[in-house]
Give the backbone structure.
Amino acid sequence: MMPGPTPVPETTLLALAKHPIGHRTQEFSNILAEVTANLKWLHQTENNVLILNVSGTGAVEAGIINFLSAGDRILVGANGKFGQRWVEVSQAYGLNVETITAEWGKPLDPSLFAEKLQADTQKQIKAVVITHSETSTGVLNDLETINRHVKKHGTALIIVDAITSLGVVNVPVDAWGLDVVVSSSQKAYMTPPGIGFVCVSPKAWKAYQTAKLPKYYLDLGKYRQAATKDTTPFSPPVNLIVALQTTLRMLKEEGLESIFARHERLKNATRAAIKGLNLPLLVEDSFASPALTAVVPQGIEADKIRSFLKQRFDLELAGGQDHLKNKIFRIGHLGFVSDRDILSCIASLEVVLAELGYKGAVPGAGVAAAQFKMMETIYS
């Protein structure tokens, strides 16, 4: 029940266990062609969706360095661990970074981006980098509004970390005109870590032609050229791609609207349960991500709760990062997660809280609140 790596379906694990096939064979090219088509479906795009043998961080790095040059002025939103990471990646490559911040657990203010972009009459801002769903806190930033401000600017690219939002909430790449959208396999794709995805618009490819930052393995032009022949420029993670083929089929069978509705239902049930247990939530309802829920336990160390859950129920939750370490725990509800998983998680959490001496809730209150919210959604 972590926000990554997420649970993996049995059919995907069985596909992963197959003997590797040659990555230059027609058999693998056929698999890659299907995977690419389904990636475009999930992204709601006709743009290139490129497959890289990297983690999410590697994919975001590729999404930044392929379209910019040293000294370029960019805006980066940072209201959590991963927004701050993209600041650090950009600075490492000599970009002129202006950071727009918010307190961890609070959303980025779109008006701050609007002010910067509107004041840039010389069109010096080359890109805006946004983390859509901030995994360290569970905040869902207002990508749609920020993107509208970027579009009014006219020339700046929008580069989106959609690592815990793609396949969780609606990210209509073409309809919104998003330029670079990054995601990774161990989140809503329900596949083990090891694959990063970068979706690239025609506008971004135009910027690629003049970008001068150094790159080789992460040169997306190589991946674009290889993709036209249903192949890859370097040795790909063959078994991960074969496994991904199965999960993308599962997602397509479920359908986009059902996927988004399921994640919203799980979010609402989880948050209702935590409120039923009288535990504080880090993030307000209005900007809570359907990917995960961050809880701020009172009077009990967060890591002690996590440790007991692991020992008693073999249930793993994520902890806090940086200054939130041991102050929060995070319940992931993205990817291969069902209503039953949420109910089991909350029931286990209730037992552990009781064992640790928590007196703040009536036994069963969390499970009852989650059940009520699920039934409210199903029968509404």
